[in-house]
Amino acid sequence: MNGRNLVLIGFMGTGKSSVGRLCAQRLGYTFRDSDAVIEEHIGCAIPQFFTEQGEEAFRRIEHEVITELAAASGLVIATGGGAVMNENNVAALRSTGCVVLLTATPIVILRRVGNTRSRPLLASASDPLARIKELLAAREPFYTSAAHIQVNTSLMTREVAADKIVELYREFEV
Ligand code: S3P
Fold first, then answer.
1. pTM above 0.90, yes or no
2. Exposed site from 110, 123, 141, 149, fewest CB < 10 Å?
3. Which one, of 128, 134, 132, 103, lies nearest residue 116 by Cα?
4. 106 CA to centre of ligand 1 in angstroms
5. Is 5 helix (H, G, I), strand (E, B) or coil?
6. Which of 8, 55, 119 to probe ligand 1 with, by most ligand atoms within 8 A of CB?
7. Atom 4, ligand 1: which residue's CA is nearest?
8. Nearest to 34 by CA among 51, 54, 10
């Protein structure tokens, strides 16, 4: 163990949760998905919370959860796609973790996301692909500056992506 958490950031559909679970198995770490922890705190599904309380309220809870997870050790942490838009989240995650950005092309993201109605930021879009491209363009600088390492998962199975990430993580030193 290199003493740091392994933190996966990136847009929805890039594989953070599915690949993160496999990375945790390979490393013998505990897997935590920040969205799942948020749902434990709020007691309902994230889309419902977005509708009833709004995005700002969601981002406040997300910040509390990220701070709590970053303070622990021996974790693989999959973050929500918007978590690194908050610089305090980035600072907390980078201070204790090796931050790996997962990327994928907009088409691959759309295919993996499947039903866009379950994704609050895509649900109302008449053209989900255009919305994905727009959000990606706005977020790209935040993603790249938050990351220590990047892996494009577009052409990888989750197993291959996990192997690659674990290899890069093991080589990583600050
Ligand atoms: C969000 C992504 C979601 C979830 C919330 C907001 C975003 O997580 O945190 O719906 O802002 O991109 P995933 O990236 O795990 O889908």
1. yes
2. 141
3. 128
4. 15
5. strand
6. 119
7. 80
8. 10
C-beta pairs of 149-152 under 8 Å, 24+ apart in sequence: 149/98, 149/99, 149/100, 149/101, 150/100, 150/101, 150/102, 150/103, 151/100, 151/101, 151/102, 151/103, 152/102, 152/103, 152/104
Q: Which of 29, 168, 173, 26 has its CA nearest to residue 100?
A: 168
Cβ-count burial of 98 within 10 angstroms (0-12 exposed, 13-18 middle, 19+ buried)? Answer: buried
Q: At residue 18, what is the residue type?
A: S
Give the integer Cα–Cα distance in Å for 12 and 102: 10
Cβ–ligand 1 contact at 46 (below 6 Å): yes
Distance CA 90, CA 101 (A): 12
pLDDT digit string, tens, across residues 101-152: 999 999 999 999 998 888 999 999 999 999 999 999 999 999 999 999 999 9
- Could you give the C-alpha distances from 21 to 37, 76, 119, in angstroms and in order? 15, 8, 21
Q: What amino acid occupies position 57?
A: A
Do residues 88 and 60 lie in contact, with contact meaning Cβ atoms separated by under 8 Å?
no
